[in-house]
């Protein structure tokens, strides 16, 4: 007889949701990967990381391989503090916690701030893995629409006022990717950033700022929400080196009030990757990081332009999208087409994407999809868009004009 495992009530609640990773695709060989939110292989500094690893082990022998890791690890935290200071956020040591990627940061914050009664407000659409994390802790959400200027703060204000008037629970946290958002590529305008901070004070919620793409803005990015916070600790900032160095290193961080950071550290315990942190510290000490970022930004800007031009050339007139202001992604609307149903045809044609339903809680937004320009090279991007446009054309409602 199969034993029924005695999971806690909270864990059992999470099992009502779909298993994580349902958006991951099994790709056929040779498929052009416009679904993958990974850095292009040639943009991962593999040789520099290799040199940093060799130098680290030559100089320190076994130390980076021990539980506590290299004596260089504090340098990693200091390097993060210096980068945050450059972007307008001065942090004390006790206000910064290094994590194993941004997802661990989101999970830790959820663990210490949420319960099954808490309400989470978030952009719609938003990062699918954040949705998976939040749904492990609560079933109560507010979905705030996103347009070309980022999250619609006027609509958010209306929703908050309505909830307060009706005596409904107000959000405990608002999760946002304000710069080069995943999946839309949009950036919250300075005016909306100011408005969001006013709303947070008025309705007493915390802002969880996910800045995974903030240093990949194609033009000068607006100020960090954390930098606009005025020391109120209303904003909890999450950063990551996954998109700008290497995702497999799993280096992220949380910047917030000392009490919160201490509590996060309590529950994080020693769930670090000492070797990865040691290698990253060795890499950063030998890298002109501003030059590295400039090179990445130029490359991704060029790749985004290749995708935009291909979309203009090949897609039917009814298909629309936002021009990204940075990051990795573009968000397309295909009126009258269920993009989840269309996906097998796209894969058979040799191109992949992520259906839009995975970026929404209700999974009913069927006529959207996310494309990534980060992984494939420019030539493959153009060919992938051409293949996708052919599939889209074959699925258009009758009498819809075709693309080129």
UniProtKB/TrEMBL annotation:
Gene Ontology terms for molecular function: pyridoxal phosphate binding; transaminase activity
EC number, UniProt record: 2.6.1.-
Keyword match Ion transport: no
The UniProt record lists the keyword Transferase: yes
GO process annotations (BP): alpha-amino acid metabolic process
InterPro entries with a match to the protein in the record: Aminotransferase_I/II_large, Class-I_PLP-dep_aminotransf, PyrdxlP-dep_Trfase, PyrdxlP-dep_Trfase_major, PyrdxlP-dep_Trfase_small
Domain of life of the organism encoding this protein: Bacteria
Cofactors demanded by this protein: pyridoxal 5'-phosphate
All residue ranges annotated as the Aminotransferase class I/classII large domain in the record: 32-384
UniProt keyword list: Aminotransferase, Pyridoxal phosphate, Transferase
Matches recorded under Pfam families: Aminotran_1_2
Gene3D superfamilies the UniProt entry points to: Aspartate Aminotransferase, domain 1, Type I PLP-dependent aspartate aminotransferase-like (Major domain)
Signal peptide (from-to): none
Enzymatic class: transferase
Protein name: 2-aminoadipate transaminase
Species, as recorded: Planococcus koreensis
Lineage: Bacteria, Bacillati, Bacillota, Bacilli, Bacillales
């Amino acid at each position: 007889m199969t034993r029924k495992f005695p999971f806690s009530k909270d864990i059992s609640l999470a099992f009502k949701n779909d298993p994580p990773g349902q958006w991951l695709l099994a790709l056929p060989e040779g498929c052009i990967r416009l679904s993958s939110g990974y850095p292009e292989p040639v943009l991962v500094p593999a040789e520099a990381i290799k040199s940093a690893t060799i130098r680290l082990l030559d100089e320190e022998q076994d130390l980076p391989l021990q539980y506590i890791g290299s004596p260089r690890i504090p340098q990693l935290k200091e390097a993060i503090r210096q980068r945050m200071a450059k972007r307008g956020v001065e942090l004390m040591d006790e206000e910064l916690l290094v994590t194993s990627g941004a997802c661990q940061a989101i999970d830790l914050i959820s663990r210490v701030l949420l319960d099954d009664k808490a309400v989470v407000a978030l952009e719609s659409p938003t990062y699918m893995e954040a949705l998976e994390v939040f749904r492990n802790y609560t079933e109560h959400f507010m979905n705030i629409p996103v347009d070309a200027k980022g999250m619609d703060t006027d609509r958010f204000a209306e929703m908050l006022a309505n909830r307060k008037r009706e005596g409904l629970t107000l959000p405990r946290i608002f999760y946002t990717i304000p710069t080069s958002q995943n999946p839309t590529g949009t950036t919250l305008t300075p005016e909306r950033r100011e408005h969001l901070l006013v709303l947070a004070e008025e309705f007493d919620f915390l802002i969880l700022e996910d800045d995974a793409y903030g240093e990949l803005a194609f033009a000068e990015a607006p100020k960090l929400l954390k930098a606009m916070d005025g020391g109120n600790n209303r904003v909890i900032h999450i950063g990551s080196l996954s998109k700008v160095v290497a995702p497999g290193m799993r280096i992220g961080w949380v910047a917030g009030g000392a009490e919160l950071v201490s509590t996060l550290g309590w529950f994080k315990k020693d769930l670090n990757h000492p070797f990865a942190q040691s290698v990253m510290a060795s890499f950063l000490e030998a890298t002109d990081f501003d030059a590295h970022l400039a090179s990445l930004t130029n490359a991704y800007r060029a790749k985004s332009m290749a995708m935009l031009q291909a979309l203009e050339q090949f897609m039917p007139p009814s298909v629309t999208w936002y021009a990204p202001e940075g990051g990795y992604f573009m968000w397309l609307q295909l009126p009258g087409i269920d993009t989840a149903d269309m996906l097998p045809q796209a894969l058979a044609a040799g191109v992949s994407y992520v259906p839009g339903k995975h970026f929404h809680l209700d999974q009913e937004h069927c006529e959207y999809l996310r494309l990534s320009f980060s992984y494939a090279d420019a030539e493959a991007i153009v060919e992938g868009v051409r293949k996708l446009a052919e599939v889209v054309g074959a699925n258009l409602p009758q009498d819809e004009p075709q693309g080129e």
